[in-house]
Amino acid sequence: MDKPTQGNSARSPIKPDSTFDASQFVQFMSNYGHTGFIGMQYRDQGHNWVELAMPWHEDLVGDPETGVLASGPIISLLDNAASMSVWALRGAFRPQVTLDLRVDYVRAAIPGKTVIAWAECYQLKQSMAFVRGIAHEGDIADPVAHAAGIFIQVESDGWARGLEEPA
């Protein structure tokens, strides 16, 4: 499928209720938007958890004098891992939105190091999912940040319209 062009309001070509595989999802999304820009990579997944990585690169630095990563890419990485943990537990892709995501920074990420985000969906209700996660550089006992959030499932009607159809 062709990449949507800038200004195209087409919805995601991912079909609702399709079987979810985080490695394939990350590979697909790496061609789109901020996911590709931050260089998000798949690492692993389990029944209710997903682990992603984001290698350090200069474009993501928030303070050029120190080389410390900006908070936005780390938040995005945690949000993606948390969202995917819901789909991992559901076993299928379902459209959802982040209702709440709290990120508590413990310390700055070390310049030059890859940041790893691990997140799990620990409670799944009919329309809500509760998640928690952690960002670190290889030692989960030395976290960069902790996250806790809630995702709300949305109706999938019209979600996977073709690119040729109006939004």
Automatic annotation (TrEMBL):
Domain of life: Bacteria
Swiss-Prot/TrEMBL keywords: Hydrolase
CDD domains, sorted: PaaI_thioesterase
GO molecular-function term, one example from the UniProt record: acyl-CoA hydrolase activity
InterPro entries in UniProt: HotDog_dom_sf, PAAI_dom, Thioestr_dom
Pfam short name (any one): 4HBT
SUPFAM superfamilies in alphabetical order: Thioesterase/thiol ester dehydrase-isomerase
Biological source species: Novosphingobium hassiacum
Gene3D superfamilies in alphabetical order: Hotdog Thioesterase (3.10.129.10)
Record domain Thioesterase: where: 67-139
Protein name listed in UniProt: Uncharacterized protein (TIGR00369 family)
